[in-house]
Amino acid sequence: MILRRQTRQIQVGDVAIGGGAPISVQSMTNTDTADVDTTVAQIHRLEKAGCEIVRVAVPDMDAAAAIEAIRARITIPLIADIHFDSRLAVASMEHGAQAIRINPGNLGGPDMLAHVVDAAKQHHVPIRVGVNSGSIEKDLLGEFGYPTSERPDALINSALRNVRLLEKQGFEEIKISIKSSDTLTTIAGYRQLADKTDYPLHIGVTEAGGLIAGTVKSSVALGILLFDGVGDTFRISLTRDPEEEIRVAYELLRSLRIRQRGPEMISCPTCGRTRIDLFPLAEEVERYLQTMQSHLKVAVMGCVVNGPGEAREADIGIAGGVGVGIIFKKGEVWKKLPEKELLPVFLEELRKMEEEQGSVGK
Hints:
Blueprint: E1 10-12, E2 15-17, E3 24-28, H1 36-49, E4 53-57, H2 61-71, E5 78-81, H3 86-94, E6 99-102, H4 110-123, E7 127-132, H5 138-144, H6 153-168, E8 174-179, H7 183-194, E9 202-203, H8 211-227, E10 233-234, H9 242-255, E11 264-267, H10 278-289, E12 297-301, H11 307-310, E13 316-320, E14 324-329, E15 332-338, H12 339-360
Helix pairs in contact: 1-2, 2-3, 3-4, 5-6, 7-8, 8-9
């Protein structure tokens, strides 16, 4: 059983973070924020995939001004990502950002930070203190060296120093992140930070890579931290369409039995007994499952002889043979069909089961 680290609770829009609230799944758009239609369209896809909080880059005033129009057309909370320019932070909040992500130490000094904090208080906007390995102050690098898994002190001290800057302004609606592109440094850093503060933590591996490398690195680091009870929000950072980040995030939560969204798919890796082109079949089923909300367990197997038995715990499954295939339920054959009819009949049965579960839940 996972015992969550106890933290303070803050509110980002209508999403509670920390203090025992469910761990939230975040992502970030990769659109030009000032292009409202394109940004909104991507956020709608993220919402459909299960994203619960979204962050947008704010590199200029046009992007800050666009936040108002974007917020009017989306349902999940919106965070403005700010670097260096305090004016952009203030403008983003004035235009409706429900949280901001900043590094307080690089906004131009105490006066500039005071303007940002005043705006955050006025608009009831929490602040995420975000520190990356590449943004650590020179004096801390000189004292502690570049952060490593053996000594992540520079990351931790940079974050806590920046938190103190906000606390001196009488502001405590704070979330913290300390990201590294190194898996072990991420784990060590967050573990130590969790022992030093009770602010909620946003966890992630920055610049993790593409689909395969990024999924593996993020799943290792964040899986360990979440199992330790560390983390109140998280993002799987991938060099891919951000919708892929959401898919990986929920599979990670499911694997740790923390949260579940939509069906679980199990599938065989194929072997010499496989007599059907299983890869595209599995991809089509997986694509369809992403549109579903029910908690079914769905199997895609390559062998009609052993497949149903190996996936006996599945609510429904599909298995292929030579020119034919079967649909099975709880390990028992339900229908035997020609190969060309197998997928459409299977998807239709999934649709019916989704409707039945929805009716039961009402």
